User: Fold these one by one.
Assistant:
Number 1:
Amino acid sequence: MKLNKQITLALVIMVATSALYRVMPGRPLGFAPQIAIALFSGSLFASKKQYSFLLPIVSMFISDLMYQVLFNYGFSTIQGFYAGQIENYLLIAATTVFGFSLQSAKPAKFLISFFSAPTAYFLVSNFLVWAQGGGYHHAFTATGLLQTMADGLPFYPYSVASTVVFGAVLFGSFRLLVPKFKAA
């Protein structure tokens, strides 16, 4: 992968955002930048799809690696690596497709993507929790699936809110920094 200035800047912004949210004290569970990072990557690299899917994963991995080191040395209670991580990486990468439509600055497209990406992530991730017998081990019935979805509902509003907040940070900071970065 050849790193040009735009890819380098995008990756630095993604990693910094991903790492900074983790040190935010008392953050609500489910309030995380990963979906916004995937949308951002999909928007920037829609024509280079290999980068658009790879950058959110690289960003998450670097952040997770940093936090695993901090955890191992007792500086953090948050582990960087955990069970189910591969599925989470794949789901986050999949939400990148919602960013492909964000090439224009039309607010309606941002609203749709910023709502639909966390919704898709919520539905698929909770389905996988249920299908793999996770959570409270609800029965493999429609009622068990609905209960698993209900168990995840407290996290959903934070996921949508964080996608909006971090999306604004990512898209805004990139637009502000690109002219300065190109001049350097």
Number 2:
Amino acid sequence: MECEICGSDIKGNPTRVTVEGTLLDVCAKCAHYGKPADKWTPVSRKMSPAEKTIIMHKPRRDIFDKMGDEINPDYSRLIKKARETMGLTIEELASKMMEKSTLLRKIEREELIPEDVVRKKLEATLNIKLTEKLSSHDQRGGGFIRGTTLGDVAIIKKKGK
């Protein structure tokens, strides 16, 4: 019989060792490369039974439920008018609000709609109201203003039978 590591002839009984999880028959010289097979036992991973946990899901709230107010379409004009009335430049207003002046410029040019955090800072600093309540005559159907839909403009071709 040959050693499975070095390939030399084994005189007598081979030594059975485990090398990196593989069981090998080796000579006495190569036996130190592994652990003796009779002493090595794999460590079992005990898994404790999982306790049943009941997960209570909160009912999902639609994001539109939170929306009671809508930003005024003339928000940029309101901001600019209030800023000029207070005699502030965009840079001065930005430093008061701890925001960047480029952000305020983009808001005044209607390139950006202010996020809630910025909108609240603007309202507090300039003493203005940038949101308005949706009136019931503006709401139709599911609570949204219905505009032009794809179905209003698309030409639907039916498949020939």
Number 3:
Amino acid sequence: MATILEPKLLTAEEYGRLPDEGRLTELVRGRIVEMNRPFTAHGFYMSRIDFLLRQYVEQHKLGRVVVGDPGVITHRNPDSVRGPDVAFYSYNRIPRGPLPKGYWPSSPELVIEIRSESDRWKEIHQKVGEYLSADVLTVALVDPDPQRVHLFYADRESVVLNAVDQLTFPDILPGFEIVVGQLFE
């Protein structure tokens, strides 16, 4: 009788030590999941959001902005490591000074994901739920077409903002505001 062996589930630490094979992946419940490489405009939006957010964060000395799919542990046993497009960590969660090695021990307060054409809403909602369960306070889903931002919160109903609406994060970045449409210029 043949026995089918389940592949060993990876921990976040094991996943982080794997050699870089040039593939875009995340760890979901201990298993490596490949993702499509996004179209070029995705990188533009990521850069634009980073620029606007970083200016405010550095001017007010609030913390750190990270970009480009940095690993965030969203679940343990089995482990999940997701890669947000942009994230903000306050100095309360990751203090000033040398950066921690490996995946940071705290979740960011704010995660910003940019919706790609290949993203399915089911997977988007699953990922948002993981972030919120991992102590992220707000997840902003930037949807380039039709120029909207969906805001998901840990403790209240979600909100959809259109291109003419003001985007703010009052509990995380007091005083930060931008018209949603400026994200796409």
